[in-house]
Amino acid sequence: MNYYEVGYIIISNENRYVSQSYNLDNLSPTILSISNYIKPTYPDEWLFSWVHNSNHDITRETIINDLNVSSETLEQAENFIEDLESKNRFVWPNVFYCLENAKQFKNKFLFNIKKLRIVKICIPEDFYEDFIINEKDESDMPSIYQFVKGKKIEELSFQDKKLGFDICGFSNGGFYSFICNGLQNDFLDNQVRLNPYSLIEQYKDALNVISLIDKNIIQAEEILWYPWLLIDCI
């Protein structure tokens, strides 16, 4: 299959911070998600000292304890991201433009946190035009749209470490997981099973799910849903 590279995100294998606000039945033992509704990414809102809400403050305190770095290093991490953002090489709060920048951030600031992986987010060729058309009107807002529109088409190769397809809506510049709507139960009802990462393994099954959502056979929130291909980088 062919795809367009979107960007890179750092996520955790651990389920320690998985939100308990959603129905987690019928998910696999490991939950990988690019949606920070399900669990924090690295970085995420928790890094930025100017973001304040009760859930954020609890998560920020816990993750900063995990980071186990000085306040000066934490400030450097925030400045690192803000510098990338000013150069259009990072989309707040969690997507890097290139693998090298994601590696730099992980190695420089996340060295005390285990079981992190850098994941390449891709949008299949079949959905590229739809995404570009729908996001063009929102192009004044910082978004992965600015990343995707400049990328060239690529072909999935045997060397790529495919993790699976994450069914996420895209709204207000962020990923909204199928788990938020408990759609994993609807997937099962339609003979679509999740792989060990709580992702859809086969593209044909991901296509089927999107079609069922579009036809309202699977009832989901009225946002734009896409099958994001995730490729493991580190």
Report what the structure shows.
The protein is an alpha+beta fold and 234 residues long. The protein has one domain (2-232). It is built from seven helices and eight strands; from the N terminus they run βααββαβααβββααβ. It has helices at residues 54-67, 71-86, 99-109, 125-136, 145-148, 183-189, 203-214; strands at 2-12, 90-91, 95-96, 116-124, 153-155, 161-171, 174-177, 224-232. The strands form two sheets. The chain has a six-stranded antiparallel beta sheet. The chain has a two-stranded antiparallel ribbon with strand order 2-3. β2 (90-91) and β3 (95-96) form a beta hairpin. The chain starts with a strand and ends with a strand.
Oligomer type: single chain
The run of helices and strands is: EHHEEHEHHEEEHHE
Question: How large is the radius of gyration?
Answer: 17 Å
Count of runs of 4 or more consecutive helical residues: 7
Q: Strand sequence of the main sheet, in spatial order?
A: 5-1-4-8-6-7
The helix content, as a percent range, equals 25-40%
Number of discrete domains:
1
Assess the beta-strand content as a share of residues: 15-25%
Total DSSP E strands: 8
**Spatial shape:** globular
Give the N-to-C terminal Cα separation: 22 Å
Which characteristics define this entry?
7 helices; 234 residues; 8 strands; six-stranded antiparallel sheet; single chain; two-stranded antiparallel ribbon
Task: Give the topology, please.
Blueprint: E1 2-12, H1 54-67, H2 71-86, E2 90-91, E3 95-96, H3 99-109, E4 116-124, H4 125-136, H5 145-148, E5 153-155, E6 161-171, E7 174-177, H6 183-189, H7 203-214, E8 224-232
Antiparallel strand pairs: 1-4, 1-5, 2-3, 4-8, 6-7, 6-8
Helix pairs in contact: 2-3
